[in-house]
Amino acid sequence: MQVLALDAATNACSAALWRDGRVMARRFQALTRGHAEVLMPMVQAVATEAGVAVGAVDLFAVTVGPGAFTGIRIGLAAARGMALAAGRPCLGVTTMAAVAEAVPEAERQRAPLLVVLETKRADVYAQAFAPDVTPFGEARALPLSELVATAHALARRFVLVGDAAARVAGPLAEAGIAIEPSTAPGLPDAAVVATVAARRWQVLGAPAVLEPPRPLYLRAPDVTFPGGRGR
User: Fold this and answer.
1) What string of DSSP letters covers 122-174?
2) 210: nearest Cα among 94, 90, 92
3) Residue pLDDT, tens place only, 102-157
4) Residue ranges per structural domain of the chain
5) Which fold, 103-181?
6) CATH architecture of 2-95+187-228
7) Residue 16 to residues 4, 86, 160: CA-CA distances in angstroms?
């Protein structure tokens, strides 16, 4: 089985080709903009390195958010377009799950995970996970005060991961919550997305019909209208 995975939803861009249990090729670049220019050359690079034609891929996978509105749309459009052209299924993985899955198992066994990703606003995207990466509820966009209250009600100790970890560690500690920073990168990686997608596909039993992945937006996009018109 071969899986081609993409991510362009947050402050990074990546592509990976997974085959029969291992990642054969991977490209990853941290960046805040320019995902549209970087993503498809990455796809071509991993396909070439792995010696696979994109049309021969069995499953496409992509991060669906939460994250940047434009980045999510770039990744989804690319993955769904390639899947449609190849006549293959496409499966979505949340950015929160991708970040949580990258945390080493030894760290996950110490405490629940708290994944926090940047929104580039005063709040953060947040979601907690059990050590086996089962989520505690849905991902949410939370102001820091609400994040602290929500975390405090759930546990008194967390393994903290995500590109917003440094920003929230202080307020969490001040509320009496013990924080252990994870050694994981804190951004989604297509190599992890591919692995998660392959595992889920096997659990699903390769259904004949799979709904296309849909974006996970936790807020409306920032839109500026010319001259201040519109809503």
Assistant:
1) SSEEEEEE-TTS-EEEEEEEE-HHHHHHHHHHH-SEEEEESTTHHHHHHHHHH
2) 90
3) 999 999 999 999 999 999 899 999 999 999 999 999 999 999 999 999 999 999 99
4) 2-95+187-228, 103-181
5) Nucleotidyltransferase; domain 5 (3.30.420)
6) 2-Layer Sandwich (3.30)
7) 6, 17, 25
